[in-house]
Amino acid sequence: MFKGIMTSMVGLVALTSPIVAQTAADPVLIPAAVLRVDREGLPPISRLDLPPDDLGFAGARLAIEDNDTTGRFMGQDFDATEVATTPDAAMADLDRLLSDGIAFVVVLADDQMTLDLADRAGDRALILNALARGDRLRGADCRLNTIHVAPSHAMMADGLTQFLMWKNWPRWFLIEGSHGVDTDFADALRRSAVKFGAKIVEERVYEDTGGARRTDSGHVQVQKQMPVFTQRAAEHDVVVAADETDVFAAYLPYQTWEPRPVAGSAGLVPRSWHPAMEAWGASQFQNRFEALANRPMREEDYQTWLALRLIGEAATRTGSGDVQTLKDFMLSQDFEVAGFKGQKLTMRDWDHQLRQPILLTTGQLMISVSPQEQYLHQTSQLDTLGTDRPETECEFETP
């Protein structure tokens, strides 16, 4: 019924406005794709964290709805092709998308795969990184054809460190995992500690020895092992965990030898999004997503939604569907996009990282949002999070 009424209204307007009739009949299609590269691995420690089949794709569907809401008045139509692939098939799937004329590809993949896909795409597409957090992707391995919607490890670390320093918890006991991505986050935490004046009083590495993590005896073993692993540490205010591979950090709260708060990959966790977020219009945003997906929004959904909203916002602001026009505007100083985080999100021209606040969360609640108010910056307070212009190692290779 609603569609019928809308069609009749458009027809009525068409009698008096030929320009509107042409726009309604011949919208400009702006296609994109979401390429999710799934790797096999151990299941998460908690069954509550098992990834849904539509992870990321649900965020894309909401973004297309949002883009079309404005787009239909602008004579624009948005579409996002969803592709779930494997590392072995990712390149072929990207080639197929490019051959179909898709020039905007949202990528959900690890650091190396994101870099490989960007190199494969070259000047044929703009890659929007919606998952990989590696700082090298924004530094020594930066690519001109890539925009980073996902926050970097440096941004996450700085957001957390600012809060820990506000709490006057400067002495850290740092525990990192034994995988490369764990080391990347640990390195970001080390740099952040130096940047804001925290002191890492001791470091330890938790070796991943494999084996079952969700057996009947799992919690019994952890109850015995974690206190022993954390005992005799130097005097510290907080335990900071770097466990991007989800091996040990979730077991730390309430199991450490000394009664100390836990932060980083467990306890107080920095995130790009959290389903408990309610401020700045986020409640309505969460409700719309939950009505669409029948589940809470995850970070991967938010980052995918935001990546596609960049395209929609650029199209609305420029009134264009031309690929190069949209790219240029997204990377310009005039670009900004709303992200339900209390302030406009803008682009860093030196590494193509989207500026954004970092949420500090527990399992159930929002605790704070960084940047913390006492940390100021001459250009944007958001540039207190992550790699600032004077620190960047990114040197774009121009065609």
CATH topology of the largest domain: Rossmann fold
Q: Termini, distance in Å?
A: 52 Å
The neighbouring-strand order within the major sheet is 2-1-3-4-5
Segments where pLDDT lies below 50 for 5+ residues? 1-23
Sketch the topology as an H/E string, one letter per element.
HHEHEHEHEEHEHEHEEEHHHEE
Structural class comes to alpha/beta
Shape: globular
How would you sum up this structure, described in words?
With 399 residues, the chain is an alpha/beta fold. The protein has 2 domains: 23-150 and 275-356, Rossmann fold, CATH 3.40.50.2300; 154-271, Rossmann fold. Helices cover 37% and strands 17% of the residues. The protein has a 5-stranded parallel beta sheet with strand order 2-1-3-4-5, sandwiched between helices. It has a 4-stranded parallel beta sheet with strand order 7-6-8-9, covered by helices on one side. Strand 3, helix 5 and strand 4 (126-129) form a beta-alpha-beta unit. The radius of gyration is 22 Å and the shape is globular. 42% of the residues are buried.
